[in-house]
Design brief:
heterodimer; A: 242 residues; alpha/beta; Rossmann fold; 6-stranded mixed β-sheet; 9 helices; B: 289 residues; mainly alpha
Chain lengths: 242, 289
């Protein structure tokens, strides 16, 4: 295994009940890489992300994170290894305040190597609206604010890799481009690794990432970032229409 | 003056009973949605733990009470590990399982300790006001109930454990993907609920006849108070108990205690009909306006 390899998915299949959704899927993510995964609705992208997080059992294949086999590890173990997760639909805890939502992952860790207060301030400087609303209830935020909150919650424990599942879904374009800029900056400045499941062409081209196209739970093709760095090129090659 | 104090005393007594009956169930049913028909037996375990340890080892009452609570927590932990753990998100199955637990426990107490057990003396004394005599321990119970409720509110609303518990109960799978060890949080929360029921048993042990069905005296009050409190038990519990306590005290004052109990049940039916989200629903709705 090469030194830079962070996450390796090998021949993974998973699904619900007797239905196989993700079928024999393989890909690798290198340290510092931004990888987009796209495809139409119902093609198994979210199932694949849940499988990587451990929320759905793997039927076949293996998942390796930094040379450790995590195929059968619990979701909380994977999170503690350093995998951040921004689920589809944001999944903010409505009973908790904004700040409690952000701090939740910190409370689960016995040892942290950084000052959590400084980290919180750092997160607030990325998403100023969250500082303003830090005492508000999670459920009182707008969709775009909730998305920022979900990203903040994933960043707080300084994970090495962050999985984002459709961060642009149902959010107004100005916020989408703000989120795109923030992710690009994080990948440039703090060398974070990202897997971004997305159907929004402008966000994909903004991220300047390689892209995997998924159809019916199967790896279909991989495109280099240079092939899809404008909206027009991305639209043609990914044949998505939005 | 004496008349007013008399009303306050009766009301406080009824309020304390409703709150202490409900407090453990507020966690297990109100938060965790386990319809725990064995809640009364948790109280029984707390009461017997207190009385038996007090008699057998001749312990001072506060130590015996602590022992009773500890026994109830251990009892709760064992039940959670072997039975309740498999029932989260299955409220109807939890009814059957906890009813079974309730029958087994109360019959076991009957077999082991017989139809009744020698009780403890009520601690503290009495004081006289006008022609009436009042128990100081009853006053102590009122303050205990309010103190426990504040403690519970602080634990679940202000501590990191409380944040983890509320997140886990709202969405276990997302919580686990954020690093929460969901199993441990459920176990700890259930144990807290069981422990609180144990506290109720321990506090009332010196005031009641110790029989295997002692917990049954609490279960109806527990459920009606938690249901009246609504979905957010920490917000709704005090107004619910205050309302039900007022109804009971007033009706009992003019008629008699049997009619008071009937009045409470009628009041609950009206609450469920007109405030389906209970008092906490009403309060939270007003607050968000």
């Amino acid at each position: 295994m090469t030194k830079n390899l962070l996450l390796k998915i090998e021949n993974v299949s998973s699904g619900y009940g007797s239905t196989v959704i993700v079928n024999n899927f393989s890909f690798e993510v290198e340290k510092g890489q931004v990888l987009a995964i796209t495809g139409s609705n119902g093609m198994g992208k979210t199932t694949l992300m849940k499988t990587i997080m451990g929320l759905i059992d793997v039927r076949n294949g293996t998942i390796t994170y930094k040379d450790e086999d995590i195929t059968n590890s619990s979701p909380d173990y994977r999170s503690k290894l350093g995998i951040g997760y921004v689920p589809q639909g944001r999944e903010i805890f409505s009973a908790l305040s904004v700040e409690q939502n952000i701090m939740l992952p910190i409370y689960t860790r016995k040892k942290i190597t950084f000052n959590s207060k400084d980290k919180l301030e750092e997160i607030y400087s990325l998403f100023p609206i969250l500082k303003e609303k830090r005492l508000a209830n999670g459920s009182s935020l707008s969709g775009g604010q909730q998305q920022q909150l979900a990203i903040a919650r994933a960043l707080i424990f300084d994970p090495e890799i962050i999985i984002l599942d459709e961060p642009a879904e149902g959010i107004q374009p100005s916020i989408v481009s703000f989120i795109g800029n923030t992710l690009s900056d994080l990948s440039k400045n703090s060398k974070k690794t990202f897997i971004v499941v997305e159907q929004n062409i402008s966000l994909i081209s903004q991220l300047n990432s390689d892209c995997i196209l998924v159809e019916k739970g199967v790896f279909t093709k991989k495109l280099k970032s240079s092939e899809i760095n404008t909206v027009e090129k991305a639209r043609d090659l990914l044949s998505l229409h939005n | 003056m004496v008349f007013l104090f008399n009303i306050f005393y009766q009301f406080g007594d009824s309020l304390a009973f409703l709150l202490l009956a409900a407090i453990g169930l507020a966690v297990i049913f109100g938060m965790m949605k386990i319809i725990n028909l064995a809640h009364g037996e948790f109280i029984t375990v707390g009461a017997y733990g207190t009385v038996v340890s007090g008699k057998v080892f001749n312990l001072p009452l506060p130590i015996a009470m602590a022992f009773g609570v500890l026994v109830t927590i251990i009892f709760g932990l064992i039940l959670e590990k072997f039975i309740i753990r498999y029932l989260y998100g299955r409220p109807l199955d939890s009814v059957v399982a906890t009813w079974g637990i309730s029958l087994i426990v109360s019959q076991s107490f009957l077999v082991i300790f017989g139809p009744s057990y020698e009780g403890l003396q009520t601690p503290m004394g009495n004081f006289q006001l006008g022609e009436f005599s009042y128990s100081e321990y009853r006053i102590f119970l009122i303050f205990s109930a309010l103190f426990l409720l504040m403690l519970l509110y602080y634990l679940f609303m202000k501590t990191s454990f409380g944040t983890l518990a509320r997140a886990t109960i709202e969405n276990p799978s997302i919580s686990s993907s954020m690093g929460v060890d969901v199993k441990n949080i459920y176990t700890a929360t259930f144990a807290i609920g069981a422990g609180l029921a144990g506290v109720t048993g321990a506090l009332y042990a010196p005031t009641m006849t110790i029989v295997p069905s002692i917990g049954q005296a609490f279960i109806v009050s527990a459920f009606i108070t938690v249901v009246t409190a609504g979905a957010s038990p920490f917000v709704g519990l005090v107004p619910a108990a205050a309302f039900l306590g007022t109804v009971q005290t007033t009706v009992t004052f003019f008629y008699k205690s049997t009619i008071g109990l009937i009045a409470i049940l009628c009041a609950v039916i009206l609450i469920i009909r007109y405030l389906p989200n209970g008092f906490s629903g009403l309060i939270l709705k007003k607050r968000s306006k």
